[in-house]
Structures are given as structure tokens and as C-alpha cells.
């Protein structure tokens, strides 16, 4: 066993969640206290503009002598994935739970998942799979297409559809995640990549207690791209296929033009065909270049080896 101080660490990323944090804090502490589970809560303020930082400072102060609460304050918005990373880094629990601040994922469910983990010695991670998400038709279609594409292309991993970041796992899983150094983090893929025994349980997300979701369609699209470009080199190989198909097509076309000329003596009318072909190949080449550029850009960013986040402040209710 490790020298962990608590049974469970709740890692809570917060971006403009000042209206939700008090409720979350109260519910979580009460729920786990009643259950006799010793917890620590790590709030990560991901560059909020709504006073979350000040609120967290007060929460840590009021927790002194009662609860173990840490608050990390980022210097700007680095994204949820970075917030989760920071939280896991400072976590001192034997087990870790990743949970949102907006009460869509309740501490009671977290407790249920924790108990499941404790009851099943061979399970390393319990993950919540969202059933029946209350989302628009287009979004649902887009997500389904994403999972299909991702699992079809990804080289050695596959991610189950609708699996969420709402998870409870043992410390070695946390260590494995922290050992993956990438800047562009896509946790669904990272969890799949590290392996470990994962138990998926269905769960229905609640309505947000307050505020709105921070995901826009654009952000989701970028997230999906991070997943695909981060976990497979398949798009790079498209060039080989496209090139080969075009070459074969070109030979067939050439033969047909030649046959037409020899049999009927017709001069192939060239201009429109030529224009179309130039456009087609120009487009294909640019698209393939774009794919290469995607990888090059990501490689460039990873190679700068900048930190995954920058924190201004780290408070801890158990320390002076
Ligand atoms: N979040 C964050 N940084 C961001 C966006 C979101 O830390 O840039 C946090 C947010 O405060 C919440 C969690 O990530 O606790 C999930 O975000 P949200 O509720 O917007 O996503 P959804 O539940 O709609 O998937
Ligand atoms: Mg939410």
C-alpha cells in the first residue's frame, strides 16, 4: 500500500463555477462523512472570471481543522484536461475521483462508484457511461460519427461510446496517467491507452445546478481533432491510398482516350477535363498537405515541452 493520507481524493475542475462550488462542497463533505470515507477535495480553478478564485480561498480557510481541501489557481484558462492533470498531481488519496463542479455528477454517485471499486479487488477503475444524454440530434449524430471514426482508425485502442471523465480509480491508474507527458491531452484516449481493468456503469447526468456548459460546437470539434490526431497516424496514410487510386484512375483514363483515338480517330476534347483534373489534384494535394501540417503543428507544440499548466497559487487547508 502507498503512504496515501486519504481514502479518496475528489479532483474538481472549476471554470466559472462560483455558483456551484458551495453546494458541491457541502454535499460532498456531508455525503462522504456519513459514509465514513476519509476524503480530500482538490479544486482547480481554471482561470475563471467570476470570483471562483476568491471563493476557493474562503473555502480553504473555512475548511481548516475540519476538512482536507486544496485549491490550485491557474494563471489563465488551460482547459479541463490540464485542470484534471494538476489535481491528480497533488492528490494524496489512495483512490482518485474525477468529478465536475456543476452537480451534473453527484457526490452520491461518486460514493457509489467508490464502493464498487472497493468491493471489486480486480477492478482498477470505475467509469460512468452516460445513457440517454439530453442533447440535440445533430450533436448526437456528430458524437456517434466521432466514436466510429476514432475506433476505426486508432491503431491499438478503442474507446467505448459515451464513456465520461466521471471516474473513480486506484492510485496506480493515476500514476500511469501522470506519466503520459503530452500537452494536448485527450483523457478518453489516455484512459484507453493505459489499459487497466475498467468497469463501466450506466448513469444519467443531472441538470447543471447553475451556469451553462462550457462546451461549444467549435471546442468539441477541436477536442475530437485532438483525439484523432493524437492517437492515430491513419490520416497520414490516406495520402498513399488517395495517390494510388488516382494513379490507377489516370492510367485507365489514358487507356480509354488512346483506345478512342485509335478506334474512332476522335481527338479527345481536352479543356474541361483538364480544368477538372487540375482542380481535383490541386485540392487533393492541399488536403494531404493540411493533414501533414496538422501533425507537424502538434509535434511542434509537444516539442516545446512547455508545462501543461501554470499555477499562481496552491492553498492547502491542512498546512499553515
Ligand atoms: N471546465 C474547466 N475548464 C474549462 C471548461 C470546463 O475546468 O475550460 C470544468 C467545468 O467547470 C466543469 C467541468 O469542467 O466542472 C465540465 O464542464 P462543463 O459542465 O462545461 O461540460 P459538460 O458537463 O457540459 O460536458
Ligand atoms: Mg457539466
TrEMBL record:
GO molecular function: transferase activity
Span of domain Glycosyltransferase 2-like: 10-174
Pfam families from the UniProt entry: Glycos_transf_2
Protein name stated in the entry: Glycosyltransferase
Superkingdom as given in the UniProt entry: Bacteria
Keyword terms, alphabetized: Membrane, Transferase, Transmembrane, Transmembrane helix
Annotated TM spans: 238-259, 271-296
PANTHER family in UniProt: GLYCOSYLTRANSFERASE CSBB-RELATED (PTHR48090:SF8), UNDECAPRENYL-PHOSPHATE 4-DEOXY-4-FORMAMIDO-L-ARABINOSE TRANSFERASE-RELATED (PTHR48090)
Protein family membership: Belongs to the glycosyltransferase 2 family.
InterPro entries to which the protein is assigned, alphabetical: Glyco_trans_2-like, Glycosyltransferase_2, Nucleotide-diphossugar_trans
GO CC, any one term: plasma membrane
Amino acid at each position: 500500500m502507498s503512504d496515501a493520507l486519504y481514502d479518496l481524493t475528489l479532483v474538481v475542475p472549476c471554470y466559472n463555477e462560483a455558483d456551484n462550488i458551495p453546494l458541491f462542497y457541502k454535499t460532498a463533505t456531508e455525503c462522504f462523512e456519513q459514509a465514513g470515507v476519509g476524503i480530500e477535495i482538490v479544486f482547480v480553478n481554471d482561470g475563471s472570471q467570476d470570483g471562483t478564485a476568491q471563493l476557493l480561498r474562503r473555502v480553504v480557510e473555512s475548511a481548516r481543522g475540519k476538512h482536507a481541501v486544496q485549491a490550485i489557481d491557474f494563471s489563465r484558462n488551460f482547459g479541463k484536461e490540464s485542470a484534471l492533470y494538476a489535481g491528480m498531481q497533488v492528490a494524496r488519496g489512495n483512490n482518485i475521483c474525477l468529478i465536475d463542479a456543476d452537480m451534473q455528477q453527484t457526490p452520491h454517485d461518486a460514493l457509489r462508484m467508490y464502493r464498487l471499486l472497493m468491493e471489486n479487488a480486480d477492478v482498477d477503475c470505475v467509469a460512468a457511461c452516460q445513457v440517454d444524454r439530453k442533447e440535440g440530434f445533430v450533436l448526437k449524430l456528430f458524437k456517434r460519427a466521432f466514436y466510429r471514426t476514432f475506433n476505426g482508425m486508432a491503431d491499438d485502442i478503442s474507446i467505448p461510446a459515451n464513456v465520461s471523465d466521471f471516474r473513480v480509480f486506484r492510485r496506480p491508474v493515476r500514476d500511469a496517467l501522470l506519466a503520459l507527458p503530452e500537452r494536448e491531452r485527450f483523457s478518453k484516449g489516455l484512459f484507453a491507452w493505459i489499459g487497466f481493468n475498467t468497469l463501466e456503469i450506466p448513469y444519467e447526468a443531472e441538470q447543471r445546478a447553475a451556469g451553462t456548459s462550457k462546451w461549444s460546437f467549435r471546442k468539441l470539434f477541436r477536442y475530437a481533432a485532438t483525439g484523432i490526431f493524437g492517437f492515430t497516424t491513419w490520416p497520414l496514410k490516406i495520402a498513399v491510398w488517395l495517390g494510388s487510386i488516382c494513379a490507377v484512375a489516370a492510367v485507365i483514363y489514358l487507356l480509354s482516350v488512346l483506345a478512342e483515338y485509335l478506334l474512332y480517330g476522335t481527338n479527345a476534347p481536352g479543356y474541361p477535363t483538364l480544368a477538372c483534373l487540375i482542380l481535383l489534384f490541386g485540392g487533393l494535394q492541399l488536403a494531404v498537405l493540411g493533414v501533414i501540417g496538422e501533425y507537424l503543428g502538434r509535434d511542434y507544440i509537444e516539442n516545446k515541452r512547455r508545462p501543461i499548466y501554470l499555477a499562481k497559487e496552491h492553498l492547502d487547508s491542512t498546512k499553515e
